[in-house]
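Hi W., the iron/sulfur cluster complex you wanted:
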Amino acid sequence: MREACGIFGVFGPAGLNAASLIHRGLFALQHRGQESCGIAVNDRGQVRLLKDMGLVSEVIGDDDLHQLQGAAAIGHVRYATTGPGSRENAQPLLTRYSKGILALAHNGNLANTDALRHELEHKGAIFQTSIDSEIIAYLIARHRPDCATVEEAVSRSMRQLRGAYSLLIMSRGKLLAVRDPLGMRPLCLGRIGETVVFASESCALDAVDATFVRDLDPGEIVVADRSGVRSLRTHCGQVPRPCIFEYIYFARPDSCLDSVSVYQARLAAGRLLASQHPVAADLVIGVPDSGNDAALGYSQASGIPFGKGLVKNNYVGRTFIKPSQAQRISAVRIKLNPIRSSVSGKRLVLVDDSIVRGTTSARIVTMLKAAGAAEVHVRISSPPFLWPCYFGTDIPTSEELAAPHHTLEEIRQQIGADSLGFLDPASLAAMLGKPGATYCDACFSGRYPLLSGHVADDDTSDRYLVE
Ligand code: SF4
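Structure:
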């Protein structure tokens, strides 16, 4: 399962090569998307764009960075969740309109894409791509002539958007960072001296030696330009619903999202699992990489030693990840291999972050038993997936998910485990260490966030807060 995208932006003083910072930042966000990537650089009003299919290391080279001079830039890594994975759908997107040029990078999915596209096409709009991000760019461009500033045009556009979006928008003289009113996807602000940096995750700030300043608030628009950094809060005030699965799987463990360490959340999930689903065993192992931290938490709480039982091959190219079931099964064998000397004769607790279809778990359990494991007790550091995600995650339709159609016992038998336990959905707030925390857990609960209801008042300058 993969996530939609990662975004990274830089606004610095004249003379800065923003592209080289973007390049480093995108490397740190590569886990959020490996299909395509791109970078748009603003050189005193002239915007240059480089984007293509492939990893950051394949698309952006040292020569390109030399060509991409400019003090402001935005970058994007993509995994397609709306529209096909093609070069035309790669980001950033460039939009030329009456006021000049806009570059836009988007993480998330709109939930009202079809309705907006239909309405806009009915009024004569022509779209170049099949992705929802172009609709956002189109709305901003359409509102801009009636607004005094680009941020007002963005704020006005946000009234029409429903769903998950963290955005970076670069105009001739400004860089805007935007988080949707529910804060579903992460976005944070950092600094390197005078240079302002925005990133999907704080690990990307670390990659460029930026100091973390803060997460953007849900609904906030932060504007960076030559006069400084300002915050427009016309869409703030809703109950936040950040994606809980960022903590379980998507984000890197060295990131902090909304003041919660991803690593600590995963440790806590493992500790909670140990208390909810104890078992007598000799060794706790994780499915690398995202299961390892929860496995360590399980070990800490249970007192069962933590060890390494599976090795992940990090050099399997994404071209090997094929869509058919048979190909997926053989891909598991190439990507993961058990350490026979570690698991042979042992009663194992195997911790993974999720079960989607069940085929990968079945393959791993089979491999471990073939390597001599005496028992394999599977523990999952999230609740069962029961519902699809409409917000930028490729959780499959309910028909393809294992949990909606099978009892716990049936899934246990299907994957060949000696026992099976999922994290109790009621303990997700405890996992975050924030009693009373609000978040989106719709793929587990079916309680989708309310995507309408808040419409901002007219934008006025007294809503600005100066950083
Ligand atoms: S439905 Fe699940 S994956 Fe999608 S945003 Fe909500 S918590 Fe995240």
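Residues 184, 243-245, 389, 391, 393, 395, 440-443 surround iron/sulfur cluster (CB under 6 Å).

W.
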